Amino acid sequence: MIWAALTVAFYSITAFGDKYISARLKCSAGEYTFIVSAATVFWLALCLFFTGWNLQLNRQSMFLLVFLTAWKVIEFYTTAVLLKDMEPYELKAWLGINVVLSYGINLWEGKSSFKINMLVLAAALITGIYLIITSREEKKISKNIAVCLLYIFSKFMYGMHMGDMSEYGNSAAILIIVLSIVAVLQLPRLKIRELPEKRKLLPALMSRLTNATGLITEAEAAVANIFFYTLIQPLQLFVLFVISLITRCEMNQRKRIGSIICVGAVFMMTIIFNN
């Protein structure tokens, strides 16, 4: 359980670091993508002492690397846009939809049996998300929905292709290659002089350390106890939501009710889906 707990803690810190880069530093999508990618590569390179380097390059793996790079760019750009208005836990609530998508694919492939309670929980999740997004100004609703759907799609496809890529190397080596390419692709879009001052960037850079270490503890959690490993996402959602309550983030009654519904639905769906 300790590995899962550490992973939740590390990824939660990273989530607030992402919020800091996007909203507090007011970085553009390109700046956000460059900072996050470059900083993560730096820390992952140091983590190679613990993970080692394992990467096989052939036609299939290079094809997958291209897709992984594309999905990461989309993920980072949509994250940068959404976190200017959203709290980190709201993004994790949207990610709960991927549990529904994974369940649907398993049904299609005959790997899971039909469970009516999954449909009930999926409906509850959509209801909770609806309450959250409609608690905002009307003009932001349609924009946020479109960007959120693109964010979910990129995360889902990234997960699928990362699973396919796992037979060609370990996650640290794969991410170093992918994120290095992503960072280089952003260079033409950057105005170096307009990047935040070094002292303001320090918290952002340190938050990527927790992201890198989270990758290691997440792998250990998967080996140590698969049940606790599956609970990492819903537990992180719960922790981020509680922190938002403690720090008194802006949250009207409609948003609070929707958030509680999302937390409960994602938690229950994860348990049912993995049993």
Short description:
The protein has 275 residues and is mainly alpha-helical.
Structure description:
- The chain has 275 residues and is an all-alpha fold.
- 81% of the residues lie in helices and 0% in strands.
- It contains eleven helices and no strands.
- The chain has helices spanning 2-24, 29-51, 59-82, 88-109, 116-133, 138-165, 171-186, 198-224, 226-230, 232-246, 253-273.
- Helix 2 (29-51) crosses helix 3 (59-82) and helix 3 (59-82) packs across helix 7 (171-186).
- The longest helix is centred in the middle third of the chain and has 28 residues, at 138-165.
- The mean pLDDT is 81.
User: How far from one another are the termini?
Assistant: 18 Å
Shape: globular
List low-pLDDT spans: none
What percent of residues adopt helix (DSSP H or I)? Answer: over 70%
Gyration radius over CA: 18 Å
Quickly count the helices: 11
The main sheet comes to: none
**Percent in strands:** under 5%
Order of helices and strands: HHHHHHHHHHH
Q: Which structural class matches the secondary elements?
A: mainly alpha
Total strand segments: 0
Mean pLDDT: 81
